[in-house]
């Protein structure tokens, strides 16, 4: 398959858009996006990624993620089924955006929202320079620590890895076009909504 961005974009010729939303773990991207997706009068759709990590107690296959066994994930990876995929949290799990979902929903005129990490986001930007790149910032790093501790879904070690990853991601944030600070959820949701409406 060709890696030429212009050729790849031709395959995606459509009225849809690709919107990348990144930000460190614990910044509240999920809650923020849920609120905006529920209220914005825009054709937004959240892309469901695939992952090799185990579902958390409240997560369902096909809703938060497609939870794939590692061998299936890698088989699909070798088969070119991912628009982007990366191993996140060193030595940890794989996450990836399935090409097929994005392609078909964009072709149907949807604005497909990819909630993915910075490596993935920058990879999408290289392939689709007109993707809308949005970074969600915490008010400060202490907030991330508190949120990860409160969430209680991570072991101490995994939470530490997420914080290290967060520091790396914040360094790369400048490569994103739009920046929103998620201090007050309602304010951040309004800002995100206004931003999306402005690019309509
Ligand atoms: P979590 O395990 O908390 O659901 O997600 C961990 C990280 O993986 C988050 O930073 C999230 O943005 C990222 N992530 C989720 N799906 C994808 C994906 O398809 N590709 C990439 N590159 N990152 C993803």
Give keywords:
binds guanosine-5'-monophosphate; Rossmann fold; 200 residues; alpha/beta; 5-stranded parallel sheet; 4-stranded mixed sheet
Question: Gist?
Answer:
This protein has 200 residues and is an alpha/beta fold.
Provide the spatial order of strands within the biggest beta sheet. Answer: 2-7-1-8-9
What proportion of the residues is helical, as a percent range?
A: 40-55%
Low-confidence stretches: none
Oligomeric status:
single chain
Named CATH topology: Rossmann fold
Largest beta-sheet characterization: 5 strands, parallel
Q: From N to C, what is the helix and strand string?
A: HEHEEEHEEHEHEHHEH
Number of domains: 1
CATH classification, class level: Alpha Beta
Name the CATH architecture: 3-Layer(aba) Sandwich
Number of helices: 8
Distance between the termini: 31 Å
Radius of gyration: 16 Å
Strand content: 15-25%
| CATH H-level superfamily title | P-loop containing nucleotide triphosphate hydrolases
Bound molecules: guanosine-5'-monophosphate
Blueprint (SSEs and pairs):
Blueprint: H1 5-11, E1 17-22, H2 29-39, E2 44-46, E3 49-51, E4 65-67, H3 70-78, E5 82-88, E6 93-98, H4 99-107, E7 111-115, H5 118-127, E8 132-137, H6 141-151, H7 156-172, E9 178-181, H8 185-198
Parallel strand pairs: 1-7, 1-8, 2-7, 3-4, 8-9
Antiparallel strand pairs: 3-6, 5-6
Helix pairs in contact: 2-8
The structure holds guanosine-5'-monophosphate (5GP).
Residues 25, 49, 53, 84, 86, 88, 95-97, 115-117, 119-120 line the site of guanosine-5'-monophosphate.
